[in-house]
Write a structure and sequence with these properties.
This protein is α+β, with helices and mostly antiparallel strands. Helices cover 26% and strands 27% of the residues.
């Protein structure tokens, strides 16, 4: 009897190809040899000599092969523990802007553990309280925009500044505040500087921001979703990959949708490649960065 892992490929002329995955080798049988597989005589003896058939020797060789194969696959390195932090700082975050669940230290601690376990993109569901999220969406809607249709970016942009006032200024202040920066630093594992900048982005159907990593001057990014009732069918997700575009290993590993009040944090690094896919309806987000230097 042939070993169970031997793959069989019938040929049009009645012959048979046998592929042995243990030894990574192929054997071809003529139509006459294929017909004689079940018979006694030279063909079974030949297969036995090539260890294509079950038997004590073939079993021993196969077991030794797979033992060596498993030994070459190293388990992933144990993750580093997240930075120590005073998670109780979450209680000091502004109640009029940050949702109650994100004013609990345990919520931040778990996010830090996700990062320590290897997560590169960190969704922060319902970061903003409902009232502030809607105020920010209204401020976003009323901002002045410039059209960008060059290079990577096909979208409308408003550069946010404290002089915008209202909810936009309040969010910039929150990003730069010591409690929020300390918590985000502990989660990401990098010290975030105080300088911040942000863009309000407006994407129309057909717009996109093409693949790019977190910029060299930015330590980390946080994007706020400002789209009420968004669905997966609306598109417009931030999509992530485990390699740069053009790399043979490139594949999408996850997507984030810009739901109203949700946030997404991304640290700078080789795993930060992402892009904004084209939406099917008007898409609004506000993306901020902690700026190095």
């Amino acid at each position: 009897m042939l070993r169970p892992e031997i793959l069989r490929f019938p040929l049009p002329d009645g012959g048979l190809e046998l592929w042995d995955p243990v030894f990574d080798r192929k054997h071809a049988l003529t139509a006459e040899e294929s017909a004689a597989l079940a018979a006694t005589g030279a063909i079974p003896a030949r297969l036995a000599a090539q260890m294509l058939q079950e038997g004590p020797v073939a079993g021993l060789v196969r077991a030794q092969f797979w033992a060596r194969k498993r030994a070459t696959v190293q388990p992933p390195a144990a993750p580093d523990p997240p930075a120590d932090a005073d998670w109780a700082l979450a209680e000091s975050l502004p109640t009029e802007r940050i949702a109650e669940v994100w004013r609990r230290g345990e919520t931040w601690r778990r996010l830090a553990e996700d990062r320590a376990a290897g997560a590169q993109a960190l969704p922060m569901r319902s970061l903003l309280c409902d009232t502030f999220a809607r105020e920010l969406a209204q401020a976003h809607e009323g901002a002045d925009y410039e059209r960008m249709a060059v290079g990577l970016t096909w979208a409308d942009r408003h550069v946010c500044v404290p002089e915008d006032g209202g909810a936009i200024a309040a969010w910039l202040s929150t990003m730069a505040s010591a409690p929020f920066r300390t918590l985000m630093s502990a989660v990401i594992g990098l010290a975030l500087p105080e300088p911040v900048t942000a863009n309000a982005w407006r994407l129309l159907p057909g717009d996109e921001i093409r693949p790019h990593p977190v910029g060299a001057t930015y330590v980390a990014t946080i994007s706020l979703g400002l789209c009420e009732g968004w669905t997966a069918q609306d598109g417009g997700s931030i999509a992530f990959a485990d390699a740069a575009p053009g790399d043979p290993a490139f594949r999408v590993t996850g997507r984030w949708l810009p739901h109203l009040g949700d946030a997404l944090a991304i640290a700078r690094g080789p795993a930060s490649w992402h892009w904004v896919e084209s939406p099917r309806r008007l898409r609004r987000t506000l993306t901020g960065w902690w700026v190095a230097g």
